[in-house]
Specification:
It is built from three helices and no strands. The protein has 108 residues and is an all-alpha fold. The chain has a domain of 64 residues. The longest helix is centred in the last third of the chain and has 36 residues.
């Protein structure tokens, strides 16, 4: 049985990240694309886990819509927080690469 990460990686295997808009060396662009692909897979993994939780909740609270809405709100907030955390990590890593290749002041 595959893990959620393996499923997410399979789903994103055909996705090609766009090149960085800044003029960076090809190796830096490649690294940024790899980071984006990795973090896209992590977001997809979280989405898969959340979908599973939602299906479980819908089954458990099928006859109690108020309780279901309450639990879905919690799940949605958890997903948003997890996605924000992952995207912040992605931005931090890609910003580090961009800073390493940033032209000195007055040169750009």
């Amino acid at each position: 049985m595959k893990t959620a990460l393996e499923i997410a990686l399979e789903k994103t295997s055909g996705i090609k990240a766009q090149d960085d808009p800044y003029e960076l060396p090809e190796d830096a662009k490649k690294r940024i694309r790899e980071i984006n692909k990795e973090y896209d897979a992590r977001v997809a993994e979280i989405e898969t886990q959340m979908s599973s939780k939602i299906r479980e909740l819908k089954g458990r609270f099928a006859y109690n819509p108020d309780e279901l809405r309450s639990h879905l709100a919690v799940i949605a907030e958890q997903f948003r927080e997890a996605k924000d955390r992952i995207n912040n990590e992605r931005k931090q890593k890609t910003d580090e690469i961009r800073k390493a290749y940033k032209a000195p002041e007055g040169m750009a």
